[in-house]
Amino acid sequence: MIKRILTAFILISVALMSFSGCGDKSDNDLTSHDFIAMDTVFTISIGKIAVDSGTDDTDVFSECRKLTEEIDSVLSATDPDSDVFNLNSDINAFFDADPILIDVLSTALDISELTGGTYDPTVGQLTSLWNVKGGGPVPADDKIAYAVSRTGHSLISINDSSVVKSVTDVKVDLGGIGKGYAAQKIAEYLYDAGVSYGIISAGRTVGVFGEKPDGSSFKIGIADPFNSDGIVGYLYTESGFISVAGDYEQFFEENGKKYHHIIDPSTGYPSDSGLTSVAVISQNGAAADALSTALMVMGYDKGIAFYKDSSIPFEAIFIGIDGSVKTTDGLTEDRFEISPDYKVTTDNVSDTKTSESSVTAPDTSATSEE
To answer: Is the model more confident about 21 or about 304?
Structure first.
């Protein structure tokens, strides 16, 4: 299980912290607990709990797991008892939806509209058709075209506790936002429970909150998509969520070509934007998760244009298929430390709001280890 965590999209490195069991711990100790939910490994690591909170580590971890399983029971596309599964049946409307579904789907539809549909929660027909987890095969063109016609945020609307579909066979897939949402809800619970600081790892999303005893920032390592043992660089942050979308872990090959799981809703095919990975940093876990997918589909140029005009505050790291790495202007040197193996250059941009840095990988790391 530890290996699975370390080889996930995001590698966590927290300086000056030690991990302990559930006994007494010093100010610098973190207690860690992991479990499987939402098709990934969740790892919850927490510092001291306020003495007057009336709870302990065991209770807190149990509640985190319960909260995650509750979210999963609503958002799962494969559980026959879930709201999403039933919404995806051939019906025009789903009444008395769980508040979790309304909350997540409302956020997803808003982000889909903001991103011009590059993130879209209605890609369920397409993700099911491609069956990347099952190894394909590549679908027929006519089937892809039909699935695209059943994709679009405008095909779904929410009215109080009801979800209405304009065509019955629209399918919802909240896999690109659910884990970020869960990480945020766990962080909110831990904070309210009196936990001094902590880290939530949920697959390709990591959340951090609170103040470390030594006052230093959290140090988050971003995995190198071309080298499973490598690090592109380290993010330093006091709080927030980091989510990564990439083409290098979930894919299949057919006739010598790789087909990954991040589908461009407009074409129905895996995104072909020139990027292999995008990391997004936001104070909103659901937004970080969804925007990482959207930016993978947009590509760097459109992604930077979106960043300049976005009403959602975020920063991003773009890793190209050519090994280049570019960051948004908010990731200054004190917030993003480039690996010594990378060379930094600067792009010339006409808009003074953004001054992106470009990082080019050495030739030795330009080949993906698949």
So the answer is: 304
Give the pLDDT of residue 53: 85
Three-state SS for 144? helix
**Which are the contacts of 177, defined by CB distance < 8 A and separation ≥ 6?**
104, 107, 108, 111, 119, 121, 286, 289, 290
Instruction: Report the alpha-carbon distance of residue 234 to residue 238 in Å, rounded.
Output: 13
Of the CA atoms within 13 Å of residue 326, those in its CB half-sphere come to 24
CA 203 to chain centre: 8
User: Residue 2: helix, strand or coil by DSSP?
Assistant: helix
pLDDT at 260 over 50: yes
**In this structure, how many other beta carbons lie within 10 angstroms of the beta carbon of residue 208?**
26
The number of residues making up the chain comes to 370
pLDDT band with cut points at 50, 70 and 90 for residue 370: very low
> Mind spelling out the 3-state secondary structure of 73-127?
HHHCCCCCCCHHHHHCCCCCEECCCCHHHHHHHHHHHHHHHHCCCCCCCCCHHHH
Amino acid at 231: I
Amino acid at 360: T
- Write down the pTM of the prediction: 0.87
Average of per-residue pLDDT values in the chain? 86
pLDDT in tens, 106-165: 999 999 999 999 999 999 999 999 999 889 899 999 999 999 999 999 999 999 999 999
**77-89 average pLDDT score:** 95
Structural tokens at position 155: 């095909």
